[in-house]
Design goal:
Structural class: alpha+beta
CATH superfamily of the largest domain: DNA ligase/mRNA capping enzyme
CATH class of the largest domain: Alpha Beta
Strand order of the largest sheet: 2-13-10-3-9
Bound molecules: 2-(butylsulfanyl)adenosine
CATH architecture of the largest domain: 2-Layer Sandwich
Number of strands: 26
Number of domains: 5
Shape: globular
């Protein structure tokens, strides 16, 4: 081995690079318990010593990512996700006593209960923290995950284990089911929040806006040590999957949670009527300030778990529960300016810029003004003192002008041209939204579409936040979705060109094989990749970006559809489309077909009416949209990715999936809405009239002409009992 001082700088740089790579390669398994090291300690130490010796001789060759600068194990690569065994739902909101009465009426209608029939509820404070799913197997806590998108959340097991036993039991009693998901809210008590912020301030660190942010920030960190230094608390209040039902009633379940040493909120009350629910709401509202934890309302739950099961869910919320929110908090401040933002569909949205004001514990400096009519209706002018309202996580709103305060000089003039691209902005008859007509030539629209494309519920590409999208858009690297997946190849090609030009300039031929040491060394000198040279990015972050892009080259069909940003196609609709059509090709063919049948099939899907159908078909009617989609698929494929088939979990496992069913006559064990909801949950299509395409007609008492029609057409006729047997109960 050549002694370090006999090396030329070029030789030293090449060897350092080789050693660094080798050390990094060996480091992987070394730092992860359970993996067999790739080299003996002696070999590993020898590499490190050689590396250190060369660095000592060539201090100007020490790289930012040198192994000598690394202490201990590298932090976890990222947060891993866990799929909840049963999705974690959100709650529908009630804002008035009328909404609560309506909720009760709906529950009764669905279950076929008379107005005066007994129906028990449990009323609970709605804790303002973040929900957590705790999986216990064989009575022992094995995993903890955040809610995430409801289907899967982040693995926070290591963090949650830093909570004391008094907040989080590690073992349930011997009577616990073999498997149970216990759900609750992780929160930070008001006192702990104030103490934390005082410590943050003393240390010159950033302050948390409210206890919920503090709790979330404490849990999501890659470093459980930090969670341990924060005081987090936990209330248990719900259940996910369970190998056997732990109780017949929610109230009873809460008792079992207490017996297993969980903290269950002490304010929780059993209620027998809407009047009692509303009284609870009032009392808790009065008590709110004295409680040692933040709440933003109360939750009402149907007590009987069998009724809960029957009620099931709509979209992402259960039919058996509702959140009754406290009124939003308000404050007054100065309206400094009105700016116009251009969204991904070209909508011009006025945004109010405010003198920052604290509204119920959160600093607000922007508020939405929705559209031009809204500005006119509220009569707000720049320079007015306005009242701001904020409720929960929703965007703050301007309620109106403070009476008798000095007025701004002039009414706001809404622009009729796009402030970003200058194209005409038009407002079709009968609509409230004015839109830029620039399409994708409008930078704002193109960028917003990209932001939507990479967002959490779409392709979820880590490292492509707003700032980076803006930057990559500006330098022309990413103009449309497919560019994201060819970014790495584009970069490497540019890099090759740069090396060629550079070596020509130097008069020395440098190998252009990216795997050669020669190439690596010279590109290293050039700043690794042009991207880095431009943006001052670290090599590591560019590598991370590429690898997170590669990781997302395969996505589920529902995310793919949602990511396209078709007007009115939100997550729920995207999911329904994916589940219905199964594969990208089926879906795309159907959307591009202009036959009556294709349209009828599309509008037969739950929640897809003619207006939504039109938007989807309009999207595919445009050449550039079809191109965008096929370029995207090609770019994903070039990275070895693809669009995965939609998981038709319920559909394929159920004997009635995809079948057309008609219910007629009076059913006994369930109401018509319940029958319909259950059939649809199993993937069946419930239709109103009998035709040759109908698979089953389910007849209740006094079935009339539909039963006769079915008999005539030879469609299978089932009694209510036959139907129940078919769907397994
Ligand atoms: S029950 C199916 N009970 O509110 C509903 N949720 O808006 C399961 N929350 O994600 C939740 N206090 O984070 C329930 N006593 C309580 C709650 C509560 C707070 C949160 C929870 C949930 C959100 C829904």
């Amino acid at each position: 081995m050549i002694s370090p001082h006999s090396l030329t700088p070029l030789e030293a740089a090449i060897e350092l690079d080789r050693l660094a790579h080798e050390i990094k390669r060996l480091d992987g398994p070394y730092n992860h318990p359970g993996m067999t090291p790739l080299a003996s300690d002696t070999e590993y130490d020898a590499l490190k010593r050689r590396h250190a010796a060369i660095e000592a001789h060539f201090p100007n060759l020490v790289r930012a990512d040198s192994p000598s600068k690394q202490v201990g194990a590298p932090p976890a690569e990222g947060v891993s996700t866990i799929r909840h065994r049963i999705p974690m739902l959100s709650l529908d909101n009630a804002f008035s006593p009328g909404d609560v009465t309506e909720f009760d009426a709906k529950v009764r209608r669905f279950l076929g209960l008379a107005e005066d029939a007994a129906l028990d509820y449990v009323a609970e404070p709605k804790i303002d923290g973040l929900s957590i799913n705790l999986l216990y197997e064989g009575g022992a806590l094995v995993r903890a995950a955040t809610r995430g998108d409801g289907a899967e959340g982040e693995d926070v097991t290591a963090n949650i284990l830093t909570l004391p036993e008094s907040e989080l039991p590690r073992r349930l009693g011997p009577d616990a089911p073999a498997l149970i998901e216990i759900r609750g809210e992780v929160y930070m008590a008001k006192a702990d929040f104030l103490a934390l912020n005082a410590r943050q301030e003393a240390a010159g660190d950033k302050l948390f806006a409210n206890p919920r942010n503090a709790a979330a920030g404490s849990l999501n960190l890659l470093n459980p040590q930090i969670t341990a230094e924060r005081r987090l608390s936990l209330f248990a209040y719900a259940m996910g999957d369970a190998s056997e039902p732990p109780a017949a009633r929610h109230g009873e379940y809460l008792e079992r949670l207490k017996a297993w040493k969980f903290k269950v909120n002490e304010e929780i009350r059993h209620c027998l009527s809407v009047a009692e629910l509303l009284a609870f709401y009032e009392e808790i509202g009065e008590k709110r300030k004295q409680l040692d934890y933040e709440i933003d309302g109360v939750v009402y739950k149907v007590d009987d778990l069998e009724l809960q099961r029957r009620l099931g869910m709509v979209s992402r919320s259960p039919r058996w529960a509702i959140a009754h929110k406290f009124p939003a908090e308000q404050a007054a401040t100065l309206l400094e300016a009105i700016e116009i933002q251009v969204g991904r569909t070209g909508a011009l949205t006025p945004v109010a810029r405010l003198t920052p004001v604290n509204v119920g514990g959160v600093w607000v400096e922007n508020a939405t003004l929705h559209n031009e009519d809204e500005i006119a209706r509220k009569g707000v002018r720049v320079g007015d003192t306005v009242i701001i309202q904020r409720a929960g996580d929703v965007i703050p709103q301007i309620i109106g002008i403070v009476v008798d305060s000095p007025r701004g000089p002039a009414d706001f003039l809404f622009p009729d041209h796009c402030p970003v691209c200058g194209a005409l902005a038009v407002r079709p008859e009968g609509e409230v939204i004015r839109r830029c007509t620039g399409g994708l030539t409008c930078e704002a629209q193109a960028k917003e579409r990209l932001r939507h494309f990479v967002s959490r519920n779409a392709f979820d590409i880590e490292g492509l936040g707003e700032k980076n999208i803006d930057f990559l858009f500006k330098i022309g690297r990413i103009k449309q979705p497919s560019d994201i997946f060819s970014l790495e190849a584009t970069e490497r090609n540019i890099l090759k060109d740069v090396v060629t030009i550079w070596s020509e300039h130097k008069g020395r031929k440098v190998s252009d094989d990216p795997l050669s040491e020669d190439f690596h060394y010279h590109t290293d000198k050039l700043g690794i990749l042009p991207l880095i040279a431009f943006a001052g990015w670290q090599e590591k972050s560019v590598e991370n970006l590429f690898s997170s892009i590669r990781a997302r080259a395969t996505v589920g069909l529902e995310r793919f559809i949602f990511a396209l940003g078709i007007r009115q196609v939100g997550e729920a609709t995207a999911k329904r489309l994916a589940r219905h059509y199964g594969t990208l090709d089926h879906w795309r063919d159907a959307m591009q077909s202009d036959t009556e049948e294709a349209l009828a099939e599309l509008t037969s899907i739950e929640d897809i009416g003619p207006a939504v159908a039109k938007d989807i078909r309009d999207f595919f009617a445009e050449d550039h949209n079809r191109e965008t989609v096929s370029d995207l698929v090609a770019a994903m494929r070039a990275l070895g990715g693809r669009v995965e088939e939609a998981k038709r979990v319920e559909a394929s496992s159920s004997p009635v999936a995809g079948k057309a069913v008609v219910f007629t006559g009076t059913l006994i064990t369930m109401t018509r809405p319940e029958a319909k909801a259950r059939a649809e949950a199993l993937g069946a299509k419930v239709v109103g009239s009998v035709s040759k395409k109908t698979d089953y007609v389910v007849i209740g008492a006094d079935a009339g002409s539909k039963a006769a029609e079915a008999a005539k057409l030879g469609v299978a006729i089932l009694s209510e009992q036959d139907w129940l047997t078919l769907i397994g109960g």
